[in-house]
Amino acid sequence: SVTAADTQRDPRAADRKDLIASVKALEMKLGFRRTKNFRKESAAGAVAYRCYYTGKLELPDSYAGLQLAAGTKEGCTVDEKKFDVFFYPLDANASGKTPVSSALTREPLERFLVVVPHEDFHANKRLGKLPAAWGEASATLMGFLTAAEVARQQFGEKSEVYQNLRREPDLFARKSDIINSYHVQLSTLYAAMHAGQISERDALAQKKQAFDELAHACMAINPAPKSFNRCPAANNNAGLAFDATYTKYYPMMYQIYLAEGRALKPTLDAVNVALRKAVSSGGMAN
User: What are 196-217's pLDDT values in tens digits?
Assistant: First the structure.
């Protein structure tokens, strides 16, 4: 008999509403908390335009530590000579009722399939009790795995979409190692400057070199991922702090995924155990 995984539907012709329904159906089986995300469509190009920024020699631990101003579709008005700025048009968010923006419908199918479960996983009650970095790391992994399973069911195991999504957890692990390493390196540099151990001029020169190296390292990730950027969207402190929110605890999530044999449901169960332990320990990694 022919199973869903053996079908050869054309992913490019797939109806996005049907795919959302398929994602939601799988989420229900997995025990995701139900949301009203992606029920409606929006003609807007983005659900919001945000301007994240921070000092030239300041590197917050996550996007929660960045300063934030409203932007427009034209961009930001924050002075880039004074601050490191990251302009971010959101194609979705975890509001609980985020619409399907026109920007999201134009995204590659792999990213579209990842964004839906990523935002829905944020409804997990434990994440409201934890720093943002826990939520982004766990939602990132569960977004990849849920999206891959939907692609397998809808388009088959031999489909390019499924094969691409299967690689995403590994590729993001490589990105995480790079981002986390440079975040530590630059945080140490700025601390030394603020402690008077090196001059501001030298710190800025070393900063430039580090970001040049970071750009080279992340662009070397091959094959190129399909649902996320290899490098920070802004190659500066604001972009690095933003991406570090997603990567800080991802290595831990990735090790759980490997320990559970790369299987979706066992990984989800183990991630929930890790989140429960994190809540009981006040958000500190063990």
Answer: 999 999 999 999 999 999 999 9
Residue 9 has, within 13 A of its CA and on its CB side, a CA count of: 19
Beta bridge partners of residue 53, listed in sequence order = 67, 85
Task: Round to whole Å and give the CA distance between 284 and 40.
Answer: 37
Contact status, residue 24 vs residue 35, Cβ threshold 8 Å: no
pLDDT band at 44 (very low <50, low <70, confident <90, very high): confident
Vertex 148, ends 232 and 180: CA angle to 5°? 30
Any bridge partners for residue 72, and if so which?
75
Q: What is the residue whose two structure tokens read 């397998």? A: 152
Nearest to 22 by CA among 136, 109, 139: 109
222 CB-near residues (< 8 Å, 6+ apart): none
**The CA-based dihedral angle spanning residues 159, 162, 165, 171, taken in that order and rounded to the nearest 10 degrees:** -60
